[in-house]
Amino acid sequence: MPTPAETEALLLSLRVAVWSVLGSLPAAIAIAWLLARTRFPGHALLNGLLHIPLVVPPVVIGYLLLVFLGRRGPGGVFLENVFGVTLGFTWQGAAVASAIVAFPLMLRAIRQSIEAVDRRLEQAARTLGAGSANAFCTVTLPLIAPGVFAGMVLSFARSLGEFGATITFVSSIPGETRTLPLALYAATQVPGGEPQATRLVIISVALAMIALVGSEWLARRTRHYASGEP
Amino acid sequence: MIDIAFAHRQGGFSLDVRMQLPGSGVTGLFGTSGAGKSTVADVIAGLIRPDDGRIAVGETVLFDRARGVAVAPERRRIGYVFQEARLFPHMNVRTNLRFGARRRGGAGPGAFDQVVGLLGLEPLLDRRTRHLSGGEAQRVAIGRALLSDPELLIMDEPLSSLDQQRRDDVLPHLESLAADTGIPMIYITHSIEEIIRLADHLAVMANGAVIACGPIQDVMARPDVPVLNDRRDAGTLLQTTVAGHFDEDHLSALRFGEHTLLVPRTERAKGSPLALRILARDVSLALEPPQRSSVMNVLPGQVQGIHARGDGHVDVSVDTGQIIRARITRRSADDLSLRVGLHLYALVKSVAFAERDAFRRHAEGDH
Fold it and tell me: For residues B26-39, b (16+ Cβ closer than 10 Å) or e, as one string?
């Protein structure tokens, strides 16, 4: 059985990943739609900016977050004063770091599925009395559900594995920001920590397997639904 | 009255469309592919905003560039049946049918059952759309459009993606639809057979413009509409009444004006109206009634117009009460010294009817 510290790291990892995915989902759908369906000045620039986390080392993202959203960064001070939210050295900060690092993955999956939707179906919905928002919710969204789901799975997996941006931005505080990968790293840094590291490796692998099998099952159901199979 | 006038540029193609259509019955919008027919449908439905113009259905102005009116497609109440059925794949047939009805407050109580009955959709209601054949899917699409309570129905080549057998499944439904619902319909096609079976009114498009528009018989009788006349099956439409049957000869007699035509036995009852198409190449001309000839239909008439064609043929319009056209060689025309006003005889072979002519089934009430 996992020790209390291990359970803590496991639950923290799940909490960070779930909030990271759910928090970035609405923005990902909105921006994916914008990029897939509209053309505006700065289209390519926005697309490029959003893909930066995919190509720069996560430590860079973590450092930028620290500078801007850390306790003394301009964004951090603003959030602290206006919303009373502190991101520096908190699990919320870890969720933000994960969300940003995983965002391009989710965005790409959703954007591709929106581009694959036959716009003529949306046109048909419009002629049948559905406004554009209604057509999006009742026709487009159900049809891109498999893509949205795939994006969520990718982003969830990326969040679970997030290390560099997290440790740079929110450090590795047990019970607050020490997720599974961070706990594993910590274990490898103390003499005689190998048994501890091995246990964490087993927990990580088990978690990944469960997530994979579960997502596979859910993905099949969503695909069937969207393609009209019984 | 449906008033359509707009100009629109799209890529390198420009449209300048002007036509007035009656507010009831079926208008066929005919033209070769690439003439701009589908763009006209999209503009009327509001899916394309034209550069300029005005579009009104009855009292409702849908678009008026000068006054800044552009009604959104969802507020237009135009039922649009597309070339492909465009059913929503994540919904079953019933949910597809109700999509428009739910958003437009429905087409009145009992409308659902009525439309389902009219289109024979009962056995399909709980099916997923991917399990429908092409013809079934198109019937569902027609039902879905009807149930959105439209003021105008536009059908853009609804049969073109179907094979002949499926077409024959759907066509009778379209015919009864036109007769039963009373919703004005614009029917887009490049099939002259479909036009003849369905339309009362005909608009012809070529290169982004309407080149002829009017009651179908009048437009068909015009010799100067290239897309109608540059085809082997060019011809005119004749409105007749079934006068009687000769069962032992497998013939029926049709009357129009003072004339009687003998045609292969039709199933239509005595006294019912029947429209038929007479192909110009099946009509020959004679200055005197032929003696002892195999041609049974000899119709006296007067030359109303002579239209030389580029291919060595001459189209001669003969007024027999209704216009019949004969396509003859230029040499024959010269030999007969044809001129406008000349009295002569149009010879129509009886066999021409059954082989090529689609009989309009719902001609009642049209004329």
Answer: bbbbbbeeebbbbb
